[in-house]
Amino acid sequence: MVGERIRLARRAAGLSLRELANRVGVSPQAISKYERGLDIPSSGVLLRLAEALGVKVEYFFRMRRVNLSVPAYRKNSALRRKQEQAVLAQIQGWLERYLEIEALFPPGDAARGFALPDGVNPRITVPEEAERVAEELRAAWQLGLAIIENLTELLEDKGIKVGLVDGVEGFDACTFMMEDNTPVIVMRRSLPGERQRFNLAHELGHIILRPEKGASAEKAAHRFAGAFLVPAPAARRELGERRQALSLYELHLLKHKYGLSMQAWIYRAKDLSIISEALATNLFREFRRRGWHQKEPGDALPPEEPKRMERLVMRALAEDLISESRAAELLAKSLAEFWREVAERHGGFPADPRD
Prior knowledge:
Layout: H1 2-13, H2 17-24, H3 28-35, H4 43-53, E1 74-75, H5 81-102, E2 123-124, H6 130-140, H7 151-157, E3 161-165, E4 171-177, E5 183-188, H8 193-208, E6 210-211, H9 217-229, H10 232-239, H11 248-258, H12 262-271, H13 277-289, H14 308-318, H15 324-331, H16 335-345
Parallel strand pairs: 2-6, 3-5
Antiparallel strand pairs: 1-4, 4-5
Helix pairs in contact: 1-3, 1-5, 2-3, 6-9, 8-9, 11-12, 12-13, 14-15
């Protein structure tokens, strides 16, 4: 078990056997033996391993084990095997901690199941039908035409586990199903809010939609994401039925109102025939010419943070179900660091309760 933990943490850190050995002060052969269970590190080596890998010593003795199949990544370029292993190891570590904190509470108290709501027909034959599925899901979840203020909180409330990992360049988001059919969406932490929200909605599309043979799953999920974040009536109310031009500042304002990027708004307008294909092509060409296809002009939307796991840890700590050291291990950071980050985000509140 300890050996598996060392290998998982090493992959998550993106280190080779030699790189880790150099940091710990042992040979690569010793690290290999630890990972294969042929030798057990001494307490001193274990402490140095924890420091080198950025984990608590308790991490090496965690009992819960999650097996992940390689998911279908949405990425700009193919991940190398070492990068893929690092992402999967980070996801596995986060998910194991999530399941551990849920297991501290009675069944049905902390854990939440996800089910496709009644009234939603997920089967589509062409990507355009994803528009209808998005409308049905919004109706089933009683969202109406309202702006979704926090998409992450919505999905967590519906039983989808959402997590952030450091990831690697080229990795945006991935989705997979746990053994009990709980959907899990994991994203790279450093993404701007508008890109993060579109990724979430896109991955939700992959969870909900059931494309028939011949229907592009990626195009359908793309159409679903736009329709779920900005329903057609809302888009037409904001833009009108037909436009010959779009103001860039108008798109920027709409990005901050709906949490949908400027470029996604152009796609949305094109999909709904509010603007022509030619106008959309010209706008995208202008974005690319100015480098805005990578970083849009103006201020970015603040990213959303999944909070459900954090709330469960705070609840367990308040009810004396876990110690401070266990809370720190589940949060993957010291409590001092955690409270300092919280205070920075919330105007100094709360101060570290231990002070």
